[in-house]
Amino acid sequence: MTPGARISAAIEILDRILAGQPAEQALLRWSRASRFAGSGDRAAVRDLVFDALRRRNSHAAFGGALTGRGLMIGGLVAAGRDPAALFTGQGHAPEPLAEGEGTGAASGVSDIPAWVQPLWDASLGDLSNDVATAMQERAPVWLRVNPVKATPDDAMGALAEDGIAAEPDPRLPTALRVTENERRLSQGRAYRDGLVELQDLSPQLACAALPVGPGMRVLDYCAGGGGKTLAVAGRAEGLTLVAHDADPARMRDLPGRAERAGVKVRLDTDPAGSFDLVIADVPCSGSGTWRRTPDAKWRLTQASLEQLLALQAAILRRAAGHVRPGGCLAYMTCSVLAPENDAQAEAFLQDNPDFRQVSRHLWTPLDASDGFFLSLMERR
Ligand SMILES: C[S@@+](CC[C@H](N)C(=O)[O-])C[C@H]1O[C@@H](n2cnc3c(N)ncnc32)[C@H](O)[C@@H]1O
């Protein structure tokens, strides 16, 4: 596909997304209908669509319209390129620019949804603008080295065999940032043999901060695909790891992932007894990961946020019931919004005086990768 044809494809997909179709669905539908597109074309079109969603408001302002075409024109203007060079109407390129298209300005335009902006500002304070700016960029890819199978050097060596370059984070040597050829990862030996797992830096830092010791009983109460379960699995010998999720189907990949990682995890739809550590990685707005899933940023509504807040509080209460006296409850979200983070922890502590907060941390793209929150609470 020519660069112009890729832009035409992105316009068509963005128009579907703006009409309400989820981004992944719109991309899949285009992919299925476009057998002529090679893997390079698909990746390029996907990047165009996601870049446009990350900066939807500012690109629409530059382009002059909140349409697929306006977003693509605005994206080129924002990048300092002349849209007329690609909007030629030749071959499969989009029609030439009409009078006034691409002449807009975007100063003062925010790419945070207007209704979220006050919450965003109140939650992030002085960091608000910088975090919003960071969210306009593509997210880097991070790997977690599985200590059961490899040292960071072994993992980097195996990645290098497949031409994938990665470097460790100075704070956590088992966290590797991929610097070259990330698209080869899923086919590479390091991933296939369980030496590394895909996991962003901030949840890795959060899991590394959990009190995990030999022989402990750990319950991952909202285990989903098991990212947190597997992150604690290699931290100590003799752990009993129990994974629970209200929707057991969400855990379907976990047994395979655990086997690849060389660790034992028991799936339990109704866990009984008490645990030394209970992880509650609750459903959330995902506002900390909006540069990875920019579609979610525009789909979140006040009503859906309120539903999430109620669910988070309920899960926190239920998960707490599984913590033994002297044990810990780790409340986690991948959000940067205070109502989902400190406000939940504070309300819980208020109602449950047998718990006290031992530590809390909010990571943002300014010091880690995705935004992520951890409140660690101990049961007296
Ligand atoms: C943020 S995701 C978990 C991600 C997972 N911990 C990981 O690292 O891959 C939240 C999970 O909570 C689950 N969930 C929703 N309501 C729940 C409830 N009432 N009790 C337990 N889990 C719940 C969802 O099904 C979802 O899998």
UniProtKB/TrEMBL annotation:
Residues 131-380 form the SAM-dependent MTase RsmB/NOP-type domain. It is an enzyme of class 2 (transferase). PROSITE patterns: SAM_MT_RSMB_NOP (PS51686). Its EC number is 2.1.1.-. One of its GO terms (molecular function) is methyltransferase activity. It holds the Pfam family RsmF-B_ferredox. S-adenosyl-L-methionine binds at D245, D281. Keywords: Methyltransferase, RNA-binding, S-adenosyl-L-methionine, Transferase. It comes from the Bacteria. The active site is at C334. The keyword Transferase applies. Belongs to the class I-like SAM-binding methyltransferase superfamily. RsmB/NOP family. This is RsmB/NOP family class I SAM-dependent RNA methyltransferase.
